[in-house]
Amino acid sequence: MLALLREGERYSFDLVRALxxxxxxxxxxxxxxxxxxxxxREGLVESMWRESSAGPPRRxxxxxxxGDATLRTFAAQWSRFRDSVDSLxxxxxxx
Amino acid sequence: MSTxxxxxxxxxxxxxxxxAGRGLPTGRLDDLCAEIESHxxxxxxxxxxxxxxxxxxxxLGPPEEIVEAEQPAPADPGRDPRTWREWAxxxxxxxxxFVFGIGWIAGVVLLWSSRAWTTRQKVxxxxxxxxxxxAFFPVLVLSAVAAxxxxxxxxxxxxxxxxxxxxxxxxxxxxxxLHVLLAIxxxxxxxxxxxxxxxxLARSAGRAPAV
Lengths: 95, 211
Hints:
The complex is a heterodimer.
Chain A: H1 2-5, E1 10-11, H2 12-20, H3 32-41, E2 45-50, E3 58-63, H4 65-94
Antiparallel strand pairs in A: 1-3, 2-3
Chain B: H1 8-20, H2 26-43, H3 50-60, H4 63-70, H5 84-95, H6 102-113, H7 119-127, H8 136-146, E1 149-153, E2 167-171, H9 177-207
Antiparallel strand pairs in B: 1-2
Helix pairs in contact in B: 1-2, 1-4, 5-6, 5-9, 8-9
């Protein structure tokens, strides 16, 4: 969610659909809204309702500096974790 | 936003979400419903077929699942989940009977209003023993009344040490060893029962998730 917001603001439906379309990541799109709420309460994202010319009002989200820092930390940890698993799998394959 | 212009399936989904989320704090539920309503309005514009609307709703998942994800995060496991209410209930149930009898009733009210205990534990706490340890005194009084006494009035002086017209009583049918044993068991139950139950309730409340 934070990674999707790194490039700029997006509205919630657009965010949820983008994650929902990633294969195997989300089982039900509805549960992403509580996640957005949690990120909001933790101050990692900010939101604002805006009228839309195309239809119903939309809630736009932007990442905060805290959110950006959290994303960087996670990206570094994920990269280490992925490398460790990759190296274990490679060892298993060559054994 | 109004649900009047919504697709009937979307309006029904929103109603089910509100229903499922009744236990959530009002602000959180309103916020969640506003987001989902916006999602439904975006994904199901006027004129959408029932089949397409159903597919959007299926992608959202059951309302109960969304509410479950919205539940407040579990409390810090290091924090004692027992509040003053749980402690007051645990103290008042065995000992509250000494406070004009109403202390025990207050304990029962606190016991049933807490979410730290299961219904089975609440029934146990209420029934063992109504009135708590204070119930020991009525048992004692009943035992005393059960011991029969016989009184006689001295009608005439007949070498008796008592004066004519004097009345003296003797205890008859004194407690047999069986009676004594029964009384001890009864008193032990009335005193130890509520204390054991209170200890059990205090320990299980400590393991319950914080409320």
